[in-house]
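Allow me, if you will, to draw on your knowledge of protein folds for a short while. I have a record of one protein: its chain in single-letter code and its fold written as discrete structure tokens. Kindly check, if you would, that the fold set down in the tokens agrees with what the sequence suggests. Thank you for your consideration; the sequence and its tokens are set out here:
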Amino acid sequence: MADKLPALPLVIIGSYRSDERPALPDELPTAQVIQMERLNDSEIAELSHSMLGDAGRDRQILTLLKRETEGNVFFLVEVVRFLAEEAGSLEQIVHRTLPRQVFAGGIQRLLQRRLDQVPEWGRQWLLIGAVIGRELDLDVMRHVTGIGSLDDWLAACADAAVLEVRDRNWRFVHNKLREHLLAEMPPELRVDLHRQVALAIESVHDAGEQASALAHFWQIAGSLEKERHYAAMAGERALQSGAYRPARGHFMRALSLTGEDDLQGRAWLTSRLGEVYFWVSEHSRPRAFTPRV
């Protein structure tokens, strides 16, 4: 669509997280990137007022919000939520003695406090959800957990403000919650859950359509052979759809995982890379593939 925009009275506006896709602007060279910065002092005051009314303009509250959140919108909301829980209501915040710090452990403690609101019986399923991604695939969740209905768990997580419905899909309220779960996950469990999720995707979805995701899951699960297989598949699908730069990344990864003795596999991957470079007009990039006898 971006290639056709100059001839159309049309503008496309999208948002993304730079920490998740730092190379995205390189894939869209004609796009104008606008970096959204953290809120400044006046914007913090405006948001505080919108949440707390006149109390939100209190100097002590604004000082606390600025110090504890550094303008991060998600953390602003979380700090106000914490203060309201301590005071009993939003209106009572201004009448309470404000703490010098919200949490001695900082932001990580704040995230854990939110996650602890989920009933203990449902917290292990949150780990599975964190592995799947920001947006939950409930078919995969059911396959991994062996539970036919997740309604009670979803309701409990929604009540704890950990999960929400957006465009009819369940997802983490903020990706920082998911990142915290992944960061705190023991390495052995992280590997095992990625393996379980990969197997579930293979069982409930078309593996070809999920090739890119499966390459990622099998990489973390430690199966280089399966990662190579799905990376090559993802590269081919991307190439056929005209997504040449993602195709290049997938093919290069698959080639790096292909043994020197697999001459046929390396030849095929090299030829596919050559086609990618042709379509992106990087004719000097392909290197000759010389089979060894």
